[in-house]
Amino acid sequence: MQLAFSAAEIAAIVQPLSSSGSTGVTVRGIASLGAAQSGDLSFLGNPKYKADVATTKASIVLVPADYAGEPAGDQQFLRVEKPSVALARLCGRIEQLLWPKPVAGIHPTAVIASGARVAASATIGPFCVIEEGAEIGERTHLQAHVFIGRNARIGTDGWLMPRVTVTTECVVQDRVRLHPGVVVGSDGFGYEFVQGRHEKVPQVGNVLIENDVEIGSNTTIDRARFSRTVIGEGTKIDNLVQIGHNVIIGRHCLVCAQVGISGSATLEDYVVLGGQAGVAGHLTIGKGSKADGQTGVNSDLEPGSFVKGSPCLPYNLEQRINVLRKKLPDLFKRMDAVEGALEDLKKSSAL
Amino acid sequence: MQLAFSAAEIAAIVQPLSSSGSTGVTVRGIASLGAAQSGDLSFLGNPKYKADVATTKASIVLVPADYAGEPAGDQQFLRVEKPSVALARLCGRIEQLLWPKPVAGIHPTAVIASGARVAASATIGPFCVIEEGAEIGERTHLQAHVFIGRNARIGTDGWLMPRVTVTTECVVQDRVRLHPGVVVGSDGFGYEFVQGRHEKVPQVGNVLIENDVEIGSNTTIDRARFSRTVIGEGTKIDNLVQIGHNVIIGRHCLVCAQVGISGSATLEDYVVLGGQAGVAGHLTIGKGSKADGQTGVNSDLEPGSFVKGSPCLPYNLEQRINVLRKKLPDLFKRMDAVEGALEDLKKSSAL
Amino acid sequence: MQLAFSAAEIAAIVQPLSSSGSTGVTVRGIASLGAAQSGDLSFLGNPKYKADVATTKASIVLVPADYAGEPAGDQQFLRVEKPSVALARLCGRIEQLLWPKPVAGIHPTAVIASGARVAASATIGPFCVIEEGAEIGERTHLQAHVFIGRNARIGTDGWLMPRVTVTTECVVQDRVRLHPGVVVGSDGFGYEFVQGRHEKVPQVGNVLIENDVEIGSNTTIDRARFSRTVIGEGTKIDNLVQIGHNVIIGRHCLVCAQVGISGSATLEDYVVLGGQAGVAGHLTIGKGSKADGQTGVNSDLEPGSFVKGSPCLPYNLEQRINVLRKKLPDLFKRMDAVEGALEDLKKSSAL
Fold first, then answer.
1. Which of A124, B85, C93, C298 is most buried (CB neighbours < 10 A)?
2. Residue C351: pLDDT above 80?
3. Separation CA C219–CA B264 (nearest Å)
4. Sign of CA dihedral A168, A172, A173, A177
5. Sign of the C-alpha dihedral, residues B288, B292, B294, B296?
6. Distance CA A15, CA A8 (A)
7. Measured between alpha carbons, how far is C318 from C305 in angstroms, rounded to an integer?
8. Which of B126, B163, B258 lies nearest to residue A260, judging by beta carbons?
9. Neighboring chain C residues of B335 at a CB cutoff of 8 Å
């Protein structure tokens, strides 16, 4: 990191109850107590790491008010009410420095159709393309190489990072973050098999991304065959996720990296899908359900389900089976033994 | 959707046998009978949903000629021979409106090497880069931010969507659609382990994409180590698929989202791979074979195979095992019981 | 391929001990003996394919010095000490022709902030964006549509292919190859659940990519929550891989396509992960460990482990279980039989 903070700047941000030790340090990074080097800031967030404070190489350590030890000669301890809250405050400040509010305006290299509407407070970065009829809302930031197709609408306070693509007629509501390479509105995978060839079924619906959604890098979301594909308010989607056509995702779901959701599946609110999980088409995943990583969901799930495995089973059953599975070699031996013993018994009773 | 159709425009497209009800409606979307709202068009495609026609909120409903009911006051019913055919005709018309034929020509921002050949009827959008020796065929559309490497050849009537990359010497034949973010011709993953380091094996082959192929968003296709990687005529590939170097995919295959095909594997014609399936390297998947989602194919498959599981088994066997697997806890208990009973028998016979 | 080599050019590159046959051939491709057509060069790299030399259609064949046969009328045989070494030399030459060293300089369309530092010997291609404070090292090539965020640093001799994105403050060391669409430094997937909503946890660390790393197309690497995500020296990562925040990957690892590594996992040196494998968060994978394709790693692995399955087991145990698994239908039948026999025995002994 090229960012650096003096001890005084750190103190101004975290506002410690008291401090002790060197005030001449400069902080260039944040690290856990064990991993920290000179020049790092660290923190005692969890009491179980208390012993690590005495040995950490961090230059500044955020400690609770009641922490008893004293810093080494080149260290500073800042006593704060809650180290994790102080750390969050510092991270929030770094975030502002890393990504300062961009200046409103349109970069001279951007190509914007005459009939597109860009809000005056929006920022359109270099090499963005905005097609005819598209709308960009107030304070929204298109960073660079962003493509907005015809009649697409992007709401207010959005952040579309480099080379995001939003295709024709798709709708992105307010406060949405799309990470680099996200594709919203590519065609759904729909064909009819006619005389030995796959003929394309037109994909003429769109995608609706509701307020406060965040979508990770290179994730792809297909437009509906007709009607629309929906990502509900507050839902967070990680990197490299595939969302098929006509999928409806509810509010405040978490979809981890590399998950695939097949066409016309419905996720109700508060569903959590672990990394690399897959959901088959046309299913309904009930409210608040969870699937572990690599799970294959191939049937509807009742609200509040917790599943694992491919095809999935209730989590506890799957875990129990996974334990027994390891005993299969032993089980087969036991079966051999039992059969042998029976054979012996039969022979002896036949005698 | 910002597109809208009057009742008269809908009638002109679907050409109903007869109509009844309101003629003043405007249609802005298409939805199933159950999901439709006012302003939507819906359709009775499958007789089992017949009862839903009476309760749908759709403004226009396509019904079969023999449908008996009458529309509500603000609805219109259009009687057609086959509602699904009428719907397809409407979707085809919407498709034309969403993506009108682009005007031929080269956007002034495109960077085209002096030795590249671009057909007069082609459309090259903003910020495209076409390197030396590359060729773009008649009526092909490079939408925006497309990169075509040295000596690559793109055939006629193609559609390369925003930020597609086709690298040096790769060949894309006619009527090919590449969705946003597709990479054709990145290096294969080949290294030799020499003195503790992985030394790169040059990847100097190319990729050939035959006629009528469609490839989904952010899918990656590696160039051959030498010779070429081939995607056969009419094959359709979904989003986020990985195709390794020297893979040969036959004609009219379907490869669903997030599938991974390892280097030098061969898919014969008409193979279907479900989402997130994986194929190990150097295998041959026989003609017309199918693999279910998340399947791990680790051996050659005879033509017409249908497999499931990781590692895969014949579909029916895998399904049977999945049923029995759930009974493992019970099976272990039965084994305990049997062993106990045997012990008892031995004791009693020893008496 | 549009590249072509005359017989004389091939001879100049591979420097044969002797040659026989036609000298008038032109080579446009390389293929295995069985697949080669007229115009291809082939080679006898493995003695087991010796018989194929007599029937190959290749125009030029690299054969060992002691190969006895003679070429057909329109073929040429080049006798070399080691055909595989000769082939590697030819591939190396083709590599140079496919990707000639680019001329140093900045394309006039590139947008480079006034405070960015670009080495004089670097090549910055069309439509690249380099933000304030970023640095590009000597001889590094940014091909086209590349985005380098504020204060990011790219070392010497790098090759960043079309539409690579490296975000704010990330560090890429020397001789690094990033294939098209790679994203370095997108936000980690971190939220806190507060009053029914997922609140974003700032992701203010960065990514460090060490020397000699290669990363495949459309792979995504998240920045650390704080501190940094690290890809160790000489590690090679394939296409469509997901690396979560705060992951530490050691030196000389191989990470195959579509692997997902969850946040805060550590891979020690020389780890190999097969395609589509997943690693859960906060685990340590010991030095030299291997995981087969589609494996789900959900616990720490000792150095030198070799695992398979989801959840993973030692490779040999998993393979043994996979064999037994197929016998489950039979095992259940055996259990039925055993129980039946026991029942009979009990009855007979009760008599």
1. A124
2. no
3. 21
4. negative
5. negative
6. 10
7. 13
8. B258
9. 335
List of chain C residues whose C-beta atoms are within 8 Å of the C-beta of residue B147: 143-145, 162-163, 180
Q: Which whole number is the average pLDDT over B166-182?
A: 98
Per-residue pLDDT of B107-165, as tens digits, reads 999 999 999 999 999 999 999 999 999 999 999 999 999 999 999 999 999 999 999 99
What is the C-alpha to C-alpha distance for residues C93 and C96, in angstroms, rounded to an integer? 5
Would you say residue B335 has pLDDT above 80?
A: yes
User: Which one of B160, B189, B243, B325 makes the best mutation probe of the C interface by having the most chain C beta carbons within 10 Å?
Assistant: B189
Q: Which tens digits make up the pLDDT trace of A244-293? A: 999 999 999 999 999 999 999 999 999 999 999 999 999 999 999 999 99
Which site among B150, B238, B310, B336 would you substitute to test the C interface, given the most C Cβ atoms closer than 10 Å to its Cβ?
B310
Round to whole Å and give the CA distance between B245 and A133.
42
Active site residues of A: 245
Say which residues have a Cβ less than 8 Å from residue C106's Cβ, sequence separation at least 6.
C112, C118, C122, C124
**pTM for the whole thing?**
0.95
User: Is residue C56 a contact partner of residue C42, using CB atoms and an 8 Å limit?
Assistant: yes
Q: Under a CB-based contact definition with an 8 Å cutoff, are residues B103 and B120 in contact?
A: no
Query: Between chains, do A179 and C186 touch, taking CB under 8 Å as contact?
Result: yes
- The answer to whether the CB atoms of B331 and C335 lie below 8 A apart is yes
Is pLDDT larger for residue B175 or for residue B25?
Answer: B175
Taking residue B345's Cβ as centre, other Cβ atoms within 10 Å add up to 18
Q: Look-up: residue for tokens 């299969």?
A: A328
Cα–Cα distance, B309 to B322 (Å, whole number): 9
pLDDT at C319 over 90: yes
pLDDT at residue C210 greater than cutoff 70: yes
Dihedral, CA of residue C1, residue B253, residue B148 and residue C31, to nearest 10: -20
From CA C106, how far away is CA C112, in angstroms rounded? Answer: 9
Euclidean distance between CA atoms B145 and B129, whole angstroms: 7
Instruction: Report the interhelical angle of B328-350 vs A315-325 (nearest 10°).
Output: 50
Q: In this model, does residue C347 exceed pLDDT 90?
A: no
Token readout for C52 is 């194929």
Report the pLDDT value the prediction gives residue A27, as an integer from 0 to 100. 92
User: Under a CB-based contact definition with an 8 Å cutoff, are residues B133 and B113 in contact?
Assistant: yes
Minimum distance, in Å, between the CA of residue C234 and any CA atom of chain B: 7
How are beta strands B197-200 and B191-194 bridged, if at all? antiparallel
Distance of CA B29 to the CA centre of its chain: 24
What is the average pLDDT score of chain C?
Answer: 95
CA angle B10, B15, B20 (to 5 degrees): 75
Beta bridge pairs of residue C153: C135, C171
As a three-state string, the secondary structure of A76-101 is: EEEEECCHHHHHHHHHHHHHHHHCCC
| Residue whose token pair is 């792979």 | C219
Contacts of A228 in chain B (CB under 8 A): 29
Contact C238 B202 (CB under 8 A): no
What pLDDT digit, counting tens, does each position of A180-231 carry?
A: 999 999 999 999 999 999 999 999 999 999 999 999 999 999 999 989 999 9
Q: Are C36 and C42 in contact (CB under 8 A)?
A: yes
Task: From chain B, pick out residues whose CB is under 8 angstroms from the CB of C294.
Answer: 278, 294, 296, 310
pLDDT for the residue numbered A1: 59
DSSP-based helix, strand, coil % in chain B, nearest 5: 20, 30, 50
Largest CA distance in chain A: 102
Report the alpha-carbon distance of residue B340 to residue C20 in Å, rounded. Answer: 79
Nearest to B91 among A204, A206, A242 (CB): A204
> Which position among B198, B245, B252, B282 bears the catalytic label?
B245
When pLDDT is averaged across residues A158-170 and rounded to a whole number, the result is 98
Selection from B169, B167, B271, B273 nearest residue B220 by Cα: B167
Q: What would the two tokens of residue B323 be?
A: 């049923």
